[in-house]
């Protein structure tokens, strides 16, 4: 790609989030040099037997998977871990427009625990720069739910909390911002908007620059579609027109997985984003609870569960009015949920080890989550 004179193909790639305006160097450049005949394309859908990929907005071309990715995936030795196969948002190299020959290095990923009987991790979206956590300034407003989303998307991109419906008479912006003080203190931007007004939504452009990719999360009715339409602005009609008259004579299916925005960024719209669940790998301090964890470090017992132990700094902070009890409740609930998910993951991996003929010992699954000790036990370690 020549930044001074980009071709139509360069611009199309950039519109779906290609993060370079010149030839990539480093690991990306190296992988591309190994496959000089292949072209970079972005995954828009993942199927059992193959992928739908795009090199331009609206495109969805069925291609063959790398043969390795078709083998049974799992965590057993010799199998491909699910997260090592391409997912929605990944960049892959495609030969002859029909075969994936390599995956380009991934910069970020949003994971979740897959639903179903067998506990497995699932990659929801890769290479996301910005996660817009959308919450309405109405009855939907709930700092606890926002905390939860922040935890689930950690490591997946820069989170921005978008408070929609700021124009409504009942919207109490000051109270909402006050309720999110701790989160804002951790460096997460909190932005009230009228999602129906493109001028108001434009404050989000600083997180939606050229070559960036964003996702929207938030409960039903929070304003995700409204915000998407406002971010699209008048370009919305133009995009649709371009799709109908594909000038490259190629048969393309109109696909809405990658939505190019006039700001230069693109939005990934994938069903998985609506079903986020903890994987057990999240780290509470990295997930927006660094303030609570810092207080918890002062508890008398290193393994304080913040139940009814003596010398619990967390409850002392609540009593002193320096920690919001609702925030602590949210922290404890998420902690237990994570422990539960981590326990499931450990159990599943232990079962796999046990089922192997060599019979290596299974790893310990740790304590039971959410169970408070009835009384001080001898296993409590004193912090001294
Ligand atoms: N006044 C006002 N209304 C809004 C705003 N954002 C969303 N709405 C309204 O809230 C309703 C729900 O908005 P949607 O954009 O459909 O919500 P969503 O998050 O896409 O919901 P799902 O598609 O169910 O996930 C619609 O009637 C919108 O017009 C806002 O900032 N101000
Ligand atoms: Zn404690």
Structure overview:
This protein is α/β, with parallel strands linked by helices. It has three domains: 8-115, SH3 type barrels (Roll); 130-275, P-loop containing nucleotide triphosphate hydrolases (Rossmann fold); 290-355, Orthogonal Bundle (Ribonucleotide Reductase Protein R1, domain 1), CATH 1.10.40.50. It contains twelve helices and 13 strands. Strands 10-9-8-11-13-12 form a six-stranded mixed beta sheet, with helices on both faces. The protein has a five-stranded antiparallel beta sheet with strand order 3-2-1-4-5, with no helix packed on it. A two-stranded antiparallel ribbon has the order 6-7. Strand 12 (258-260) and strand 13 form a beta hairpin. Helix 4 packs parallel to helix 12. The longest helix is centred in the C-terminal third of the chain and has 31 residues, at 325-355. The structure holds guanosine-5'-triphosphate and zinc ion.
Chart the SSEs and their pairings.
Blueprint: H1 8-15, H2 26-34, E1 39-46, E2 50-54, E3 61-64, H3 67-70, E4 91-95, E5 99-103, E6 109-113, E7 121-126, E8 130-136, H4 143-152, E9 158-164, H5 173-179, H6 181-185, E10 189-192, H7 198-201, E11 213-217, H8 224-232, H9 235-244, E12 258-260, E13 266-268, H10 290-296, H11 313-319, H12 325-355
Parallel strand pairs: 8-9, 8-11, 9-10, 11-13
Antiparallel strand pairs: 1-2, 1-4, 2-3, 4-5, 6-7, 12-13
Helix pairs in contact: 4-12
Bound molecules: guanosine-5'-triphosphate and zinc ion.
């Amino acid at each position: 790609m020549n930044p001074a004179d980009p071709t139509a193909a360069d611009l199309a790639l950039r519109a779906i989030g290609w993060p370079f305006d010149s030839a990539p160097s480093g690991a990306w450049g190296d992988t591309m040099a190994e496959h000089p005949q292949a072209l970079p394309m972005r995954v828009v859908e993942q199927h059992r037997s193959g992928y739908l990929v795009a090199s331009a907005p609206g495109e969805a071309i069925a291609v063959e998977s790398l043969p390795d990715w078709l083998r049974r995936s799992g965590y057993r030795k010799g199998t491909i871990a699910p997260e090592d196969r391409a997912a929605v948002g990944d960049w892959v190299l495609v030969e002859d427009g029909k075969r994936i020959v390599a995956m380009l290095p991934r910069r970020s990923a949003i994971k979740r625990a897959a639903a179903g009987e067998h506990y497995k991790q699932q990659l929801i979206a890769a290479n996301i720069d910005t996660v817009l956590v959308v919450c309405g300034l109405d009855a939907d407003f709930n700092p606890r739910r926002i905390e939860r989303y922040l935890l689930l998307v950690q490591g997946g991109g820069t989170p921005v909390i978008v408070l929609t419906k700021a124009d409504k008479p009942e919207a109490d912006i000051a109270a909402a911002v006050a309720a999110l003080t701790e989160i804002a203190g951790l460096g997460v931007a909190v932005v009230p908007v009228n999602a129906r007004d493109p001028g108001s939504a434009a404050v989000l452009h600083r997180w939606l620059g050229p070559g960036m990719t964003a996702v929207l999360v938030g409960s039903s009715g929070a304003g995700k579609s409204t915000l998407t339409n406002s971010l699209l602005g008048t370009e919305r009609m133009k995009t649709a027109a371009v799709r109908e008259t594909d000038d490259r004579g190629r048969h393309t299916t109109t696909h809405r997985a990658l939505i190019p925005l006039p700001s230069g960024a693109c939005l990934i719209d994938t069903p998985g984003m609506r079903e986020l669940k903890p994987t057990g790998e999240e780290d509470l301090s990295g997930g927006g609870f660094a303030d609570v964890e810092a207080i918890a470090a002062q508890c008398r017992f290193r393994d304080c569960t913040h139940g009814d132990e003596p010398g619990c700094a967390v409850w002392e902070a609540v009593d002193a009015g320096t920690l919001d009890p609702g925030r602590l409740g949210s922290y404890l609930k998420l902690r237990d949920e994570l422990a539960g998910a981590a326990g499931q993951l450990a159990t599943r991996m232990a079962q796999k080890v046990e089922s192997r003929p060599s019979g290596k010992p299974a790893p310990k699954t740790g304590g039971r989550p959410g169970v408070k000790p009835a009384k001080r036990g001898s296993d409590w370690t004193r912090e001294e």
